[in-house]
TrEMBL record:
Entry-linked InterPro entries: GOLD_dom
UniProt name for this protein: GOLD domain-containing protein
A family per Pfam: EMP24_GP25L
Protein's UniProt keywords contain Transmembrane: yes
Species the sequence originates in: Pristionchus fissidentatus
Length: 134
């Protein structure tokens, strides 16, 4: 038998002939994994015990309405801030994208305007060089 805690800490395997006894003080919140291995059919009773005062204190922390209300207000304010940050970042990226597209169009026009004269000038120079050399 072995127990794994929520933070992935592996406890040692406990083994025995016909019985194995484990006693852990589980202090983390989350899902624990209990692994058992046997070559024969095995009965696996789990006995849970708890400290009632700590249980009541833990449950009351979740049900405290005043604290929950202030936490909810904080979460809504944070959500609102994130929403505005997202909207403004999308707006800014859209503006940057439009600016980039305009610059690309201008560059394309520049290349189109000056490529044809450059090619024609090179052809004329090549023809003149041929006549001058001969």
């Amino acid at each position: 038998v072995r127990v794994t805690s929520p933070c992935a800490t592996l406890y040692d395997w406990k083994s025995g002939d016909r019985s194995a006894y484990l006693n852990y003080n589980l202090t983390e919140n989350g899902v624990y994994e209990i692994c058992a291995h046997s070559n024969a059919a095995t009965r696996f009773p789990l006995i849970f015990s708890y400290n009632e005062a700590q249980l009541i204190e833990g449950v009351s922390a979740y049900t405290n309405l005043e604290k929950t209300g202030s936490n909810l207000k904080t979460y809504v304010v944070r959500l609102n801030e994130r929403l505005y940050q997202t909207l403004y970042s999308i707006k800014y990226s859209t503006l940057a994208l439009t600016r980039d597209e305009k610059q690309q169009k201008y560059n394309t026009q520049y290349v189109e305007r000056y490529t044809l004269p450059f090619i024609l000038l090179n052809i004329i120079i090549a023809v003149v060089q041929i006549f001058v050399i001969r």
